[in-house]
Amino acid sequence: MLRSILTFSALLIAAAPAAASSYSAKLAAPASQRIIGPDIVWNCDNAACQGATDESRPAVICQSLARSAGKLDGFLANGRAFTPAELDKCNAVAKVQTGQAIAAK
Fold first, then answer.
1. How far apart are CA 50 and CA 74, in angstroms?
2. How far apart are CA 100 and CA 69, in angstroms?
3. Where are the beta strands (DSSP E) in 1-105?
4. DSSP letter at 21?
5. Distances (CA, A) of 39 to 1, 36, 64, 96
6. What is the pTM of this model?
7. Mean pLDDT score of the chain, rounded to an integer?
8. Are strands 41-45 and 34-36 parallel, antiparallel or unpaired?
9. How far is C-alpha 65 from the geometric centre of its chain's CA atoms?
10. How far apart, in whole angstroms, are the C-alpha atoms of residue 98 and residue 59?
11. pLDDT tens-digit map of 50-71
């Protein structure tokens, strides 16, 4: 009997869809818009954006937002803040905001 219950429980867990990961970002420049990315829809208000997706690659999600919205001042994936190095890598693909000069390399 116990074996049947455990087997049934395991099947239910395996059949359940994966929970969506939650993401939030702080933008360097305010934006009040909805940004539709390849794997996520961002709802932005002022300098904050939130979204959720089943995509499990936070770096890709971060770069997707940076390409659309510009430089990010912060990024959280399931409540874990990106390190400064991770955020720098994300911002490397950020679009240049109007009025910003491109820094010489």
1. 12
2. 14
3. 21-27, 34-36, 41-45, 48-53, 72-77, 80-81
4. E
5. 43, 8, 9, 22
6. 0.73
7. 81
8. antiparallel
9. 7
10. 25
11. 999 998 899 999 999 999 999 9
The arrangement of strands across the sheet holding 34-36 comes to: 34-36, 41-45, 48-53, 21-27, 72-77, 80-81
Residue holding tokens 């059949």? 15
pLDDT surpasses 60 at 73: yes
11: its two tokens: 């099947």
Residue 32 confidence (pLDDT): 81
List strand residue ranges (DSSP E) for 12-71, in order: 21-27, 34-36, 41-45, 48-53
* Euclidean distance between CA atoms 89 and 59, whole angstroms: 8
pLDDT at 39 over 70: yes
Give phi and psi for 58, each to the nearest 5.
-55, -35
Pick the residue with more confidence: 103 or 42? Answer: 42
Q: Which residue, chain included where needed, has tokens 């390399």?
A: 105
The rounded distance, in Å, linking the Cα atoms of 45 and 100 is 22
Q: Evaluate whether 50 touches 42 at the Cβ level (below 8 Å).
A: yes
